[in-house]
Fold these 2 entries.
Entry 1:
Amino acid sequence: MRNNLKQLLASYGEQVDSQLEQILPVANGPAEALFAAMRYSVFNGGKRLRPALCFAAAEAVAASDDNTARVAAALEMIHAYSLIHDDLPAMDNDDLRRGKPTCHIQFDEATAILAGDGLQSLAFQQLTELRNISAELVVKLLSMLATYSGCSGMVTGQAIDLAATGQSLNLEQLKTMHRHKTGALIEASVLMGAITTAKASEQQLAVLKKFASDIGLAFQIQDDIIDVESSTEQLGKQQGADALNQKSTYTSIMGLEEARTEAASLYQQSMASLDLFGERADSLRQLASFIVNRAY
Ligand code: GRG
């Protein structure tokens, strides 16, 4: 029993990294820079939170297996692509990601755009390479990844964010933006992990959707809290840019204390959702606790 969060994250991280290592093209040949940029952006210290949620949701319903690792890798590649594109000069224009030069700084802008494109395509390809699973479920998973990462999810969230630059959002508008921008991929991670087992009931999926929606919002609130709590020297370019662009955040709208209370309340709600699963959901519980208590 992996009762320690560090061990849990390490174990899920190793499984998804081994899958990613096999999927990502080796950096040589005429497209060497592209493949090097894709590997650079995937293997540069991410927490692997979405893969972890995918594995833990599979285990809450039944068990995780090689197919879970493939789905987890697909989710992490979508996440990595979103960060590469988000960091570009046309978007957030960031020089640093996870304390290292962003993809377009380390390589160049064109290579970074292509690296994001390549990761996105590989993510969908992974889902076509699942084994011993019905074609119906594969289509369902493909449809979900497209829906949650695309125009009904992350890409639309990013567009809402860009359109709101320089404007102040009210709480409902901010929630709508984050439910799309970051919440959707978190929701997809939980639901796709469960669906891949082929054993999830409609009731279990409904409960997991509510869990993921609550914890997805809590993730973003905690992200804003971390930004505020960071020391001035760690604030970095992003927060400077946010202030400059007058971006609304949970802490700017609600204040730090209310934001903390809201995150705690969403965490409690998410815990209540998991009652249906008993001990099988212990890993999901640990991850939810990490999401609202993390400092990075
Ligand atoms: C460019 C289509 C497109 C979408 C970008 C998710 C996103 C949309 C942009 C990310 C901007 C950002 C930094 C938002 C804050 C919340 C967030 C997603 C943080 C990064 O996620 P973590 O903490 O990252 O899971 P690691 O580094 O651990 O992988």
Note: Residues 2-293 form a domain with the Farnesyl Diphosphate Synthase fold (CATH 1.10.600.10).
Entry 2:
Amino acid sequence: MTTEEKIRQLREELNHHNYLYYVLDKPEISDYDFDMKLKELQELEEQYPEYEDPNSPTRRVGGAVTKSFETVVHQYRMYSLSNSYSQEELEDWEKRVKKLVDGKLQYVCELKYDGASISLTYENGKLKRAVTRGDGFQGDDVTNNIKTIRSIPLKLKGDYPEKFDIRGEIILPYEGFAKMNAERVEAGEEPYANPRNTASGSLKLQDSAEVARRPLDCLLYSIVTEKIPAKTHFETLEKARSWGFKVPAEAELKDNIGEVLDYINYWDIHRHDLPYETDGVVVKVNDLHQQDELGYTAKSPRWAIAYKFKAEQEATKLKKITYQVGRTGAITPVANLEPVQLAGTIVKRASLHNADQIAKLDIREGDTVFVEKGGEIIPKIVGVDFTKRDPDTPETKYAENCPECGTELIRKEGEAQHYCPNYNGCPPQIIGRIQHYISRKAMDIEGLGGETVALLVNANLIENYADLYTLKKEDILPLERMAEKSAENLINGIEKSKEIPFERTLFALGIRYVGETVAKKLAKHYKSIDALMAASEEDLLAIDEIGESIARSVREFFSSEENREIIRRLKDYGVQLEIDAELLANHTDKLAGNTFVISGVFEKVSRNELKKMIEENGGKVSGSISGKTDYLVAGENMGPSKLAKAEKLGTNIISEDEFLKMLS
Ligand code: AMP
Ligand code: ZN
């Protein structure tokens, strides 16, 4: 077998196993075997870049960064759907349809998946482009991000048309959403509000590798092309399924509105058993010819209508309002409810958001309130049943003091949230900050968990994260459930955190509004904590994407004498508070403004090293040669097509040695 054949075979196998796993949910090989095959393909592609393919399964891991998304005009407009909420409205729709077409009518009922709509263009069986709905006429090209979604076929099988668009919904199943949020909470970040917004936000992320890490899925529901190879909508769904698309099996054919209503009533209850969110049923005229006759209004097809499920709502009694203190001191009011069954779970608590929300709804203890569960994981209170209120019920007076430490709460101008300002003395803030410091995306201290942090604080062994570095095995052994071995692991884990690079240490400090990305930006700009501490608010504001609240929060953090003392101590213990000097020494901007393509095999340095060197010296690496390529670094066994293209475009072709000379 030639290398080319081997590569092709691996791609086919991997595509097939992807399909079995992500579309059919019936894997035939272990994850390990899959990873091995993927690795083998990756290595071959690295070694033989002349066989590169933008639709290779290796592209699923992402990596391409899109700075700004290109606007693309939809060849076929993406319409909305008209909505209905009752049996009468559905029957009215049927009457209108019957006036406009002759013959027997059949309907396809599908679930209305709640996510972000997408239009995929395929040419010759290959995914060409993916575009968001936008305003229906034009959307954003998000192809790089979409390619990371494993259930979307990059290559089709069967008797697909040469060119067509297929529409679907990008969704985030509950389970993956919950997992993502658990990780965010662990890292001290705000959890995402609901799966729909998170799915839709994911499409517009600049870094496709980040998209690849999100467990997104895509459910397809409509083919649009000049010549559809079918007579009915239901057949097109079956066709799409046969070409490798994920088309949910819940779609059903119905002969009349009565049957449609049965379908709706069934799914109104059973939708809670589905792994993803739905917000209604879409009813479509099955016959494509009849669809044509019916056509479109200014906004939506006449041949389809959505039936929206009512948001699940229950009335229950609000027993008490309590207040929670977060690690930044932010106060969240919580409604403690008489337990009530809602959307398949028992609800006992709901968030009340902030003081304004309570005032707006005039919520009082003892009220009967309406609780709703939309896409949000945490149910919310949407209103009060005033007819049930005892006239003597006093108005809610928002907490004035911190429930944990008694300090008077403050509320800054223009902010919705109240805060406990007792930064260094309020237990949940102290514990929360240290928990954030040790979390996975921050210092990633192995052997130390959130509960142990609470134990350590409560035993007065630590008061802040700098104290972690003074801990001795003897101190912690007496703690509950602390064995010799785990004590040792804990001390080792703390010791190892001294190797964590500056940008992550900066994130770990838990400065309000300084998340991972901002921390990276600040570390790169200032290079050391000393420089950052010396920066004025104006200095900070001059940096791209650093706004007023971040700048103010950074200034505030470093103007506290207590924080400065903690930083001094961290420095003494050897925690990384500046960018590694060695790393810095290798960085120049010698190659700034130049784009390189690397091809072939090299003698002195590996392809990865080459890539790193280019990037560290300000250059850009691209996968394929175009008019924008400045240099082609050519190694042994370079692909003939690449060479020809470079020659044709007049690209500078340089050897490994010539490249190294550019840097010396
Ligand atoms: P709306 O956004 O309320 O106008 O509803 C129209 C949207 O519903 C479409 O743009 C699709 O993204 C979405 N949708 C979800 N499931 C389906 C489905 N089975 N058929 C058609 N559209 C659907
Ligand atoms: Zn407090």
Note: Residues 80-81, 110, 112-113, 117, 133, 169, 221, 282, 306 surround adenosine monophosphate (ligand 1) (CB under 6 Å).
